[in-house]
Amino acid sequence: MHESAPVQPNSARPAPRQPTVATRLQWVDQAKGIGIVLVVFGHVLDGVHNAGIPIDAFTFRLTWDALYSFHIPLFFFLSGLFFPHSWQQRGLRGVMLNKVDTLVYPYLLWSLLQGFTQVALSQHVNNPVTAGEVLSLLWHPRQEFWFLYALFFTYLIACVLYFFVPARQRWMLLLGAVALYFLRTDIPHVAAIWYPAWYLVYFLAGAALQRVARLITERTAISLPVAALVFGGAVAALHQLSGQLAGGQSNPVISAANIVAAGAGTAMTLAVSALLARHGWSSMAYLGRMSLQVYLLHTTAAGFTRIVLQKVLGVHNLQVHLVLGTAVGVGAPLLFAYLVERWKIPGLFSLPPKLQLRRSAAPAPS
């Protein structure tokens, strides 16, 4: 039994602290779970389409537009939600050391592991990979690992901006990120700058719109149908405009439709996540907590499933490929992560504790 601390007089008792964003947002794991399932499904859909599995062109394009309009912006928004709190607690140095542990390390490790495995198997695949392509990972991220690369540099840019911009003026950063998004296609394709130009707007939206997010999750009876309606309209507009307007992604009308679709899709996911949290859907929350492990391994698992179904078993049914590919793409990484934890294999998903760089740091100046 621990001894109880002496009771302070009322005059000396500190005022109760308001719950931080980290303790308030109980639905965040649910949102990450929904997001990672959509990421896996999107890659499975793309894989079966490229493999020649019969799929209606309109259905594929509309599904693609719907998925890719918001599921990656969703993860940047969720990361941004926690950024102000993390900044206050750790400051620039602490935040970036933490991201070296949680983003840079798995990015380097799994880019090299997967890359050199592909080099070893190059004579057996249609698109061989060279060692030079693998080792260019510092300036040219490959395959799905681009997300970790992009998120790290988005954190870096956000930290620099927060360091130099006073707290009362940080709402202006979101406006600047929106302008940057509309200019993104004119930016030289330097990965460390180009990726944040696409996604910094969603990260800073999460940092600036915490009250809006809380309102969405508290009033789901209104927010969910409104978000779904706006999302459906934005995706339909994107589908039509993409084939009618010149300039593609550089067209300002299409860029505006992209932001609306991403915002509405994110709001819709937040509302659904709040409902799942209220009903105790622990399985979806577990997926959210394991989203990094699933992300790192899902393309290998889903691709192997597609090859076995198509090449070995001769299965060409679209529904079978989508269902089994998504199920294995999610389930196999979870099984692998479980075995890694059970067998106590260190260093596969994060640095061993003794090697971690994260340190408590003084809060950044406001």
Q: How would you sum up this structure in a few lines?
A:
The chain is mainly α.
List keywords for this structure.
mainly alpha; 366 residues; 0% strand
Task: Characterise this structure.
By secondary structure, the chain is an all-alpha fold. It folds into 2 domains: 24-68 and 230-337, no CATH class; 72-208, no CATH class. The protein contains 14 helices and no strands. It has helices spanning 21-24, 28-50, 57-68, 71-120, 131-135, 146-164, 171-182, 191-208, 210-218, 220-244, 252-278, 282-289, 291-312, 318-342. The chain starts with 20 loop residues before the first helix and ends in a 24-residue tail after the last helix.
Q: How far is it from the N-terminal to the C-terminal residue, by CA?
A: 41 Å
Quaternary structure: single chain
| Uncertain runs | 1-24, 360-366
> Which structural class is indicated by helix and strand composition?
mainly alpha
Report strand %.
under 5%
What's the total count of β strands? 0
Q: What's the average pLDDT?
A: 88
Order of helices and strands: HHHHHHHHHHHHHH
Q: Write down the overall geometry.
A: globular
Main sheet properties: none
Residue share in helices?
Answer: over 70%
Our count of domains comes out at: 2
Cα-atom radius of gyration? 22 Å
Tally the helices: what do you get? Answer: 14
Topology:
Blueprint: H1 21-24, H2 28-50, H3 57-68, H4 71-120, H5 131-135, H6 146-164, H7 171-182, H8 191-208, H9 210-218, H10 220-244, H11 252-278, H12 282-289, H13 291-312, H14 318-342
